[in-house]
Design a protein that fits this description.
Blueprint: H1 25-60, H2 66-83, H3 85-94, H4 99-133, H5 148-165, E1 167-172, E2 175-180, H6 183-216, H7 224-251, H8 261-279, H9 284-292, H10 294-310
Antiparallel strand pairs: 1-2
Length: about 300
């Protein structure tokens, strides 16, 4: 696949610009170098960090607490998402080389990780909201949401499966793509993802607004560490995914000025930056645990000391 006839993977549908000639060779070159390198780094960091978190939760934390159960499931979602990154890295260099089944599988992992992460973060926020604002309810004692992880995985799997089934391998000008079967499906999935993210964000904002009001009137700090931990998870996830959702919405537009070559190229570079930021969420949660959870921080320090002694 030569650079002269290469069209960037996600630009499969974006061939009708207002200008007769729209060269994206520079965009292709930057993307084929920058994104694979960044994704490779993410895979290494995510695997190491998330496996450490899994071991920490299983050995040192009580899974009777629903917050820890949500963090455990969030960690699994991040690992599943990570498993698809090597395929995306290859895609940006050589095009799609893993066949139709591989195309659907990688899209499935991407959407399963995205939807389950948003749902688990929303549930963590709701659970902390019930614990702080309605402390005497059954929800606060971790009964009302005890089956929610199973429901989250089922719902996320169904939505991810519907999205992945619309993906297929396409060949255009000797280039191979893993894309949706039509522009209609591509735009529809982008709009659904935007709406899903926006609704979850509104719910989180409402819950945190009520929690802050309650905490400001409280004379005790019981359980507030979990509130702080959940808040940082949600904050970093929002910082990563909000710009990405905005940019995929803009890129799905087929009206002026978005079909101008100049605007499209700028959106491509913005897409690079936003996608790297969004995909970073798979290794952010362990960093938050180090910052907020003293026990996890102490265990990591002990592991580091032992590793240095071995060297």
């Amino acid at each position: 696949m030569t650079e002269e006839n290469t069209i960037y993977p996600y630009d499969y549908y974006e061939l009708n610009y207002s200008e007769p000639l729209c060269s994206k060779e520079e965009v292709v070159r930057v993307g084929s170098i920058l994104l694979p390198l960044y994704f490779t780094l993410l895979v290494v960091l995510s695997c190491i960090c998330n496996i450490l978190v899994l071991v920490f939760l299983l050995l040192y934390k009580s899974l009777r607490c629903l917050t820890n159960v949500f963090i455990l499931n969030l960690d699994v979602a991040d690992l599943l998402f990570t498993f698809g990154l090597p395929f995306w890295a290859s895609y940006y260099i050589w095009g799609w080389t893993f066949g139709n089944v591989g195309c659907k599988a990688v899209k499935f992992l991407f959407y399963l990780g995205f939807y389950s992460s948003v749902l688990f973060l929303t549930l963590m926020t709701v659970q902390r909201y019930m614990a702080v604002v309605h402390p005497l309810s059954d929800w606060e004692r971790c009964r009302g949401l005890s089956v929610s992880p199973f429901i989250v995985w089922i719902l996320s799997g169904i939505v991810a499966l519907l999205s992945s089934l619309q993906s297929e391998v396409m060949i255009e000008s000797d280039n191979t793509y893993c894309e949706y079967g039509s522009v209609k499906w591509k735009s529809g999935i982008a709009y659904f993802q935007n709406a899903f993210f926006f609704i979850a964000f509104v719910i989180m904002c409402y819950c945190y607004g009520r929690m802050l009001r309650t905490i400001s009137k409280s004379f005790t700090n019981n359980g507030h560490n979990n509130v702080k931990l959940t808040f940082f998870f949600v904050l970093m996830f929002f910082i990563g995914l909000a710009p990405y959702n905005v940019i995929i919405f803009l890129k799905s537009q087929t009206i002026h000025p978005f079909i101008y070559c100049d605007v499209s190229i700028k959106l491509d570079y913005a897409y690079f930056a936003c996608r790297m930021l969004a995909f970073s969420h798979c290794c952010i949660n362990p960093a938050i645990l180090v910052f907020v959870d003293a026990k996890f921080r102490n265990i990591l320090q002990a592991i580091s000391r032992r590793f240095c002694v071995c060297l």
